[in-house]
Amino acid sequence: MASQFKVTPWEVSGTVDYGKLIKQFGTEPITEQLLNRIKKRTKEIHFMLRRKIFFSHRDFNWLLDEYEKGNKFFLYTGRAPSGPIHIGHLVPWVFTKWLQDKFGVELLFQIPDEEKFFFKDNLTLEETEKWAHENILDIIALGFDPKKTKFLIDTKDASQMYKTACQIAKKITFSTVKAAFGFSDSNNLGEIWYTTMQATPAVLPSVQKGKNIPCLIPLGVDQDPHFRVARDVYTKLGFYKPAIIHAKFMSGLLADGKMSASIPNSTIYTTDTPKEVEEKIKKHAFSGGRSSLAEHRKYGGNPDIDVCYQWLHAFFEPDDKKLAKIYNNYKSGKLLTSELKDYTIEKINKFLKEHQKAREKARKQIGKFLFKA
Amino acid sequence: MASQFKVTPWEVSGTVDYGKLIKQFGTEPITEQLLNRIKKRTKEIHFMLRRKIFFSHRDFNWLLDEYEKGNKFFLYTGRAPSGPIHIGHLVPWVFTKWLQDKFGVELLFQIPDEEKFFFKDNLTLEETEKWAHENILDIIALGFDPKKTKFLIDTKDASQMYKTACQIAKKITFSTVKAAFGFSDSNNLGEIWYTTMQATPAVLPSVQKGKNIPCLIPLGVDQDPHFRVARDVYTKLGFYKPAIIHAKFMSGLLADGKMSASIPNSTIYTTDTPKEVEEKIKKHAFSGGRSSLAEHRKYGGNPDIDVCYQWLHAFFEPDDKKLAKIYNNYKSGKLLTSELKDYTIEKINKFLKEHQKAREKARKQIGKFLFKA
Question: What is the pTM assigned to this prediction?
Answer without folding.
Answer: 0.95
